[in-house]
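Here is the promised in-class demo. Please do not try to memorize the tokens; focus on the logic of going from shape to residues.
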């Protein structure tokens, strides 16, 4: 069978199907030769219902950016549902994934459909897969990732892809990526939802030197991870933090208590986390009593990752506006290691005028005898006040 179309016509499956149906209705047998048939639907096109024109790509991008900005700000079920409905109206399978992934219960056929959609997730991301080593999904959305280039030209191909639009957290240490490429990725306008960023010192220095591109203005958490021979000066850190007006928490690596005191004097972030793997800085005895806008100062043992884990010592300002409220917290990844770090912290408390002490053991580490030992040690340090866990 041969079907001819006049020049200028758009050959669609619908049009081909109409031609085949006409031939079958007039006695055409695909297994037998037959007469030549002439079929025209020019007159019928006038009666064909015309679908509304789809929005231009720019309009779609603007609408999605607005919906994602609302979702990033509120993070509630209602905002997520509005975004999912918008995707479903456009026939985007990401909307179906959000609905199924957030449902409280699913029928067997829905569970099967959810598994099918989850198997397609990386394909939807396309070239983003080539610049990310690890990817995490939450509520059916591409939520966070760790950068890492796998092929030549991968960054150029991944820039601007709409799959970036839902990413809220990026570990931008960039394995096998230059600092210039990392900055190109994390400053994409399509990153509407980005709120948490983890950098190494080289990328942070380049970001500090670059012109203002709006990235830092929306960050809610900004972790600067430093390792190797190059450490950022307090002045560079202070400038980066000053460019983040929405910042609620910053995690940094510093070399000594003097740097902590200097950063406290300039930083306006509510929570400052010091990555202190051995509680080395914490044990220096500094009380950090100077004026500062930082409300909570946390010393965390972990050096890597977007968020601290393991033993941590949190100092919070009390009624006297000094760091007089202490919280000891740890998880149970390694019980002996955790106990050793907490014990070392207690032996060298830098603050003696504590008014409140709270102990937060994590996981299965709920040893009342050990907690009693901590309680006695704090008493011996003359840290009086209310104790609770």
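The designed amino acids, position by position:
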């Amino acid at each position: 069978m041969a079907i001819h179309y006049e020049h200028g016509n758009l050959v669609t499956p619908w049009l081909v199907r109409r031609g085949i149906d006409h031939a079958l209705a007039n006695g055409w047998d695909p297994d037998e030769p037959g007469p030549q048939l002439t079929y025209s639907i020019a007159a019928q096109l006038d009666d064909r219902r015309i679908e509304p024109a789809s929005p231009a790509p720019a309009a779609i991008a603007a609408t999605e950016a607005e919906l994602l900005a609302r979702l990033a700000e509120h993070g509630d079920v209602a905002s997520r549902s509005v975004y999912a409905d918008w995707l479903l109206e456009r026939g985007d399978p990401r909307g179906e994934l959000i609905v199924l992934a957030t449902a409280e219960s699913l029928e067997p056929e829905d569970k099967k459909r959810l598994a099918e959609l989850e198997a397609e997730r990386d394909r939807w991301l396309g070239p983003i897969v080539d610049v990310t080593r690890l990817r995490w999904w939450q509520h059916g959305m591409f939520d966070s990732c760790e950068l890492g280039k796998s092929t030549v030209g991968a960054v150029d191909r991944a820039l601007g892809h709409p799959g970036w639009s839902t990413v809220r957290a990026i570990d931008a240490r960039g394995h096998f990526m230059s600092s210039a490429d990392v900055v190109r990725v994390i400053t994409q306008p399509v990153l509407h939802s980005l709120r948490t960023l983890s950098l190494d010192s080289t990328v942070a220095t380049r970001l500090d030197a670059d012109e203002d591109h709006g990235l830092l203005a929306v960050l809610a958490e900004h972790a600067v991870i430093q390792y190797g021979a190059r450490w950022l000066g307090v002045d560079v850190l202070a400038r980066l933090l000053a460019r983040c007006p929405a910042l609620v928490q910053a995690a940094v690596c510093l070399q000594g208590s003097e740097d902590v005191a200097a950063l406290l004097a300039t930083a306006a972030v509510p929570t400052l986390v010091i990555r202190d793997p051995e509680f080395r800085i914490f044990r220096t005895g500094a009380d950090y009593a100077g004026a500062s806008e930082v409300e909570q100062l946390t010393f965390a043992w972990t050096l890597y990752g977007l968020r601290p884990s393991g033993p941590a010592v949190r100092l919070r300002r009390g009624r006297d506006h000094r760091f007089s409220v202490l919280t000891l917290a740890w998880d149970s990844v390694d019980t002996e290691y955790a106990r050793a770090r907490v014990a070392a912290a207690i032996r060298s408390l830098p603050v003696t005028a504590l008014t409140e002490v709270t102990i937060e053991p994590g996981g299965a580490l709920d040893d009342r005898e050990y907690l009693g030992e901590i309680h006695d040690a704090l008493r011996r340090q003359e840290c009086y006040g209310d104790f609770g866990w």
